[in-house]
Structures are given as structure tokens and as C-alpha cells.
Amino acid sequence: MSDNQDLFWELMEPHYRGALRFSRKLTGDREQADDLFQDAALTALARLADLRDRASFRPWFYQILVNRFRSLKRRKWWRRLVPLTAELEADTPGEDPAGPYAARQLLRRAFAALRPEEQALVTLHELEGWPVADLAALHKKSEGAIKAKLFRARRKMKDALLRLSENAEKPEAAEKLLDGDDGCIAAKPGLD
Q1: Do 165 and 106 touch, CB atoms closer than 8 A?
Q2: In which residue ranges of the chain is CATH 1.10.10.10 found?
Q3: Rounded distance, CA 14 to CA 17, Å?
Q4: Is 162 helix (H, G, I), strand (E, B) or coil?
Q5: Could you tell me if 28 and 189 are in contact, meaning their C-beta atoms sit under 8 angstroms apart?
Q6: Is residue 167 classed exposed, middle or buried when 0-12, 13-18 and 19+ CB atoms within 10 A define those classes?
Q7: Residues in Cβ contact with 74 at an 8 Å cutoff, skipping those fewer than 6 apart
Q8: Which residues pair with residue 116 across a beta bridge?
Q9: Degrees (nearest 5) of the Cα angle 29, 120, 181?
Q10: Which CATH number fits domain 1-78: 2.60.40, 1.10.3470, 1.10.1740, 2.40.128?
Q11: Along the 192 residues of the chain, how does pLDDT read in single tens digits?
């Protein structure tokens, strides 16, 4: 077992920071990202014998990360409610953050319209800078198929943004976008 651990960390070392950063972008929360990363690392260590080629460690590990994220997201573990109170608003000094906050909320909601696999794909390509060839290796699909998936995910986000921004122009719809049913703001993973 010690040999497996040594080999695992030898293979993980060059990808550690990038995989942790990817986890944080997926979850939008440092603690949840650390939990996701640790869960994926333990799963990968237990399945190290399944890795056929050491050169393919990076896509193999990222696939485990994406699978764990998808599994955890199905259980809705990432949702936390933060009450928006008058005291919180009064204690916020400086410029009015409503405009950037509303834009960020719209983007979060558009990103949330994507399935977890699409979120991971967009995050890896757009934010982490993974080339299409690496994404194709990760998903065991052709580059054309990955380009099509990226195109559809971007279009889905664009449609969601258009729909949400149209609703945001109507005062009663804007309140629904920003407020939960119980007067709380849902803190979800996003693209901060």
C-alpha cells in the first residue's frame, strides 16, 4: 500500500495545484472544494491499479473529480442559505455593489442551468485553459464532439442569461431572481 501511495503522490504532484483550483471553481467554496478534492484523491488512490498508463494520470484524475462533483451535486450538498438582513446591508461600506452583484447572480444562475458535466467542461476550457484535445482525452470523445458540447453549453448559458436578464428588467421578476422563497440569497457555486 505504501508503494501505491508513493506512486500516487508522485503522479499527483505536478497536477495538485491545478486540480485543487479546478475543484474550487466548480464548487465556488474553498471548504467544499477541499472536501471534493480530498474525496477524489482518496477514490483515485483506491483505484490506482485501474490506471493503465501513467501518462494519462491527469485526465484520469480529473474524470474522478468530475464524477465526484456530479455525484455530490445530485445530493445538493453545495447549497447554503445566507440571510440578507438590514444589518448586513447597513454594514456594507463603500460603493453600491448592487450592479456587479446582480450581474454575478445572473451569471451564477446561467451557469447553474448547465448540467454538472457541462459545468466541468466549460470550467476546464474557459477558466483553466485546457485545450480541446486534452478535454477529448479526458472524456474519451473526439475533438469534434467536445467542440459541439462546448458550443451547446455556451448556447445554453447565453439563452439562460438572455431569459434571466429579460426577467430582471421587470421589477417583480428581478425580486424573484435575487430573493429566495424565504427572503434568503442562495449561495451556489459560481464563477467568482
Answers
A1: yes
A2: 80-192
A3: 8
A4: helix
A5: yes
A6: middle
A7: 116
A8: none
A9: 55
A10: 1.10.1740
A11: 467 888 888 999 999 999 999 998 888 888 888 999 999 999 999 999 888 888 889 999 999 999 898 887 776 544 443 444 444 445 445 555 566 777 778 888 888 889 998 999 998 998 888 999 999 988 889 999 999 999 999 999 999 988 887 776 654 544 444 443 333 333 334 443
Tell me the longest C-alpha to C-alpha distance in the chain: 62
With cell 472544494, the residue in question is 33
Mention every residue, 6+ apart, whose C-beta is less than 8 A from residue 155.
none
Kindly state the cell numbers that stand for 22: 479546478
Helices vs. strands in the chain: H and E counts, helices first: 10, 2
For 80-192, the fitting CATH number among 3.40.50.300, 1.10.10.10, 3.30.390.50, 3.40.50.720 is: 1.10.10.10
- DSSP string across 20-88: HHHHHHHHS-HHHHHHHHHHHHHHHHHTGGG---GGGHHHHHHHHHHHHHHHHHHTTTT-EEEE--HHH
DSSP tag of 113: T
Contacts of 41 (CB under 8 A, 6+ apart): 12
